[in-house]
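Could you help me review a protein record that somebody else here produced? What it holds is a sequence and that sequence's fold in token form. I have pasted the whole thing underneath without changing anything:
=====
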Amino acid sequence: MSSPTHVLIHRYTPGTGPQEGTAELDAEMRIWAQIDKELREAGQLVEGWALNEATAALGVTEAHTGSQVVFAVHAIAVGSDAEARQLAARMPHLAYGSTTVHPRMD
């Protein structure tokens, strides 16, 4: 397995985007699964994690109203910053959230 070159950190604002139990969320989850499959097959997915609800984050006591919270992380192995940004631009939640690209320090 390759070492990660970049980390993609995915955020959203609670209460936005597809809601649990809807066809819209099911459709988005299929897109996430397809992206993961493609990255895995290309040898670019080192690890991917979905995180528990924001309220379960250790040390967090205040409400997150109006602010984005991290819900998932991908560690990827790609050849350039531009390639990492291209992958980030494919994420299905960008209409209501964000993905930041962080190059890994050596």
